[in-house]
Write a structure and sequence with these properties.
alpha/beta; globular; Trna Endonuclease, Chain: A, domain 1; five-stranded mixed sheet; 156 residues
Length: 156
Amino acid sequence: MAKPEPKALRRGKQFHRTVQGDWLQTAQGKVYVEKAITKVTRRRGRIDVFVDAGDGLVAVAEVKCSSWDRMSPVALRQNITRQASQIWDYVESQLSAGKEVSPGVIFPRRPRSKRRLVLIEELFENRGIAVVWQDESLEERRARAGLPSTGATDAV
């Protein structure tokens, strides 16, 4: 008999399915989940969420369930480097096909430490990748960025 999956893995897979389902229902353009691609290195890859918005513009979003609060600072940086590299493999495959690409990564929860949250966002931003925290509303994000309120309360 096979061992049951660890609880954290099951939660991660559920989060993955939830985010992909949300994109399928709400994103504009042609939305694909688990889109198979060939990287520039000729290796195969699978993009979690791929949106073809038309006119040569595509979005590439990876869904990750990283436990940022549990990582050492070294592990945090290594994890971001690995995740960003994976996303850029996907971005480069689309750039080589003549597309304009908007890359992003989606996490379920912000780290408890604001300092750690800012560091994670900066490290991804330095690599041209937008970060979305599923547990953060648009209003919370705007407030954190020092932007005026829009009156919206939906989670990002």
